[in-house]
Specification:
The complex is a heterodimer of chains A (291) and B (164).
Chain A (H helix, E strand, L loop, with lengths): L3 E3 L4 H10 L4 E4 L5 H6 L7 E4 L9 E3 L3 E5 L4 H5 L9 H7 L5 H4 L4 H7 L7 H6 L3 E6 L2 E6 H4 E3 L2 E2 L6 E8 L5 E8 L10 E9 L6 E9 L9 H7 L6 H14 L10 H27 L1
Parallel strand pairs in A: 1-3, 2-3
Antiparallel strand pairs in A: 4-5, 5-10, 6-7, 6-10, 8-9, 11-12, 12-13
Helix pairs in contact in A: 9-10, 10-11
Chain B lengths: L3 E7 L2 E7 L5 H8 L18 E4 L2 E4 L12 E3 L12 H8 L9 H14 L7 H7 L10 H21 L1
Parallel strand pairs in B: 1-5
Antiparallel strand pairs in B: 1-2, 3-4, 3-5
Helix pairs in contact in B: 2-5
Classes of the chains: A alpha+beta (291), B alpha+beta (164).
């Protein structure tokens, strides 16, 4: 293990360094994944480019209709942010199950996304919020929907030297709620067996589903949205029957593996139950807001 | 050798250390600065015995590259009290008998300190304390008394804050 560590002052400088030292360069932010991978000899970069201290990429900003999270935002900042205690609670619920406080104080949400682990806990909530990523690279800036960004286990559509700078999502309409559920073998410090994020909006004056976004992690090569389950619910009365059917459709749509944590069959069973529970939690939360 | 100078403040004292790029903060604290209270174990941020405060917040020093903390301020267990002037957490850990083998205790106290400092004056529930220390493992499994100690310290800190 031997590498040089570079500490650029700006995004442009970081991109220049990444180009100069390609293909043996790698960006590092909080390092909670990268350093472990280096220690395990899974990666062996000759040049690490430290982006953790780049200015202006750690802020959570709110406009009238959207939120932007800087890619270097720490989990703990999401977890403790007052704006995410209401209909965006899915973010707090997901951020608070990542590692322990020590990891959450330094690990970045941008790092979690670009790692593209199928079990990344913060990806499903952002998929359920239909988030987009802002990316800067040698060719300039571009935006991409998160669902198009992660293309396989550990694989994204980032080009060499590109950096994810922020994550954006629209605020939710009235009568919306979100929820995140995670199952592991223990309550804390655990990689998910399955995790589910849900975002439900009801029609203005009925209990019919107006909009539904579901996202499932650790049950397919990438976290994904079960579109059939989502589509099925539109216009249906929100409740046990329709949510159970959505769970069944979601379980059909996933392609889990058997590994040391759980069998594929168990994962599939979990998906059905957890989708139903996540939607039920959303419905409860909307009813609480209605009162 | 590809050593570079690292400027770092440890427990209020400035240090200049020649480091290699792959050295972790844990290695620098123990091997270069001699702060042996910070423990080494899993080296994968699973167990928390290497916890120190980086600019006031608990982090795992075992997987943090030292070169990334240039100019930062680090607090180790040696920096929060001494035998004559114990920190309220240290006092409470002794009183409650929260220390068995002792190996996790520096990390445990600093994990708790970071959490209590986040919400000054708060009196966390036992569940909140449990959640806050989830990243720091006690292989003796003496969690009940550790939680007692954190709760006792939180009460005292809240009380002394209210008096001031």
């Amino acid at each position: 293990m031997s590498f040089d560590l570079h500490r650029p002052a700006t995004v442009t400088e970081a991109i220049d360094l990444a180009q100069r030292f390609a293909p043996t360069a790698r960006y590092v932010a909080g390092g909670t994944d990268t350093v472990i991978q280096i220690n395990r000899k899974k990666i062996d970069p000759a040049h690490l480019i430290d982006v953790a201290c780049l200015p202006g990429l750690s802020e959570i900003t709110e406009t009238t209709d959207a939120f932007t999270l800087g890619a270097l935002t720490k989990y703990r900042s999401v977890e403790t942010h007052p704006a995410f205690r209401g209909d965006l609670r899915v973010l707090v619920e997901a951020a608070s199950v990542v590692g322990g406080h020590q990891v959450r104080n330094i690990a970045t949400i941008g790092g979690n996304i670009v790692n593209a682990s199928p079990a990344a806990d913060f990806v499903p909530p952002l998929l359920a919020l239909d988030a987009s990523l802002d990316i800067t690279g040698p060719q300039g800036r571009r935006s991409v929907a998160l669902r198009d960004f992660i293309v396989g286990p550990g694989r994204t559509n980032l080009s060499p030297a590109e950096i994810v700078t922020s994550i954006r999502f629209a605020k939710l309409p009235a009568r919306s709620a979100t929820a995140f559920l995670k199952e592991g073998r223990r309550r804390a410090m655990e990689i998910s067996i399955v995790c589910v994020a849900a975002c439900l909006t009801l029609e203005a004056s009925t209990s019919r589903c107006a909009s539904v976004r579901l996202a499932i992690g650790a049950a397919s090569p990438t976290a994904f949205r079960p579109e059939q389950a989502e589509g099925y619910l539109i216009g249906k009365p929100a409740g046990k029957e329709s949510f159970a059917e959505a769970g069944r459709l979601a379980a059909e749509a996933c392609s889990p593996i058997s590994d040391v944590r759980a069998s594929a069959g168990y994962r599939r069973g979990l998906v059905a139950v957890m989708v139903e529970r996540a939607l039920t939690t959303c419905l409860q939360r909307i009813r609480e807001q209605d009162q | 050798m590809n050593r570079k100078i690292l400027n770092i403040v440890v427990n209020g004292e400035s240090h200049q250390v020649l480091i290699e790029p792959h050295w972790t903060l844990l290695q620098v604290l123990r091997n270069e600065i001699g702060m042996m209270g910070t423990k080494e174990n899993c080296l994968e941020a699973e167990c928390g015995v290497c916890t120190v405060l980086l600019d006031g917040k608990a982090i795992n020093s075992c997987i943090l590259l030292a070169a990334q903390v240039e100019g930062c301020s680090v607090t180790t267990i040696e920096g929060i009290g001494d035998p004559e002037h114990l920190h309220p957490l240290q006092e409470a850990f002794i009183e409650c008998g929260a220390v068995q083998c002792g190996y996790c205790i520096p990390g445990m106290i600093l994990t708790a300190k970071s959490f209590l400092d986040e919400n000054p004056g708060c009196r966390p529930s036992r569940d909140e304390i449990r959640e806050a220390i989830a990243g720091t493992l006690c292989r003796c499994t003496g969690y009940r008394k550790i939680i007692d100690a954190v709760a006792t310290a939180a009460d005292r800190i809240a009380l002394s804050g209210a008096k001031q």
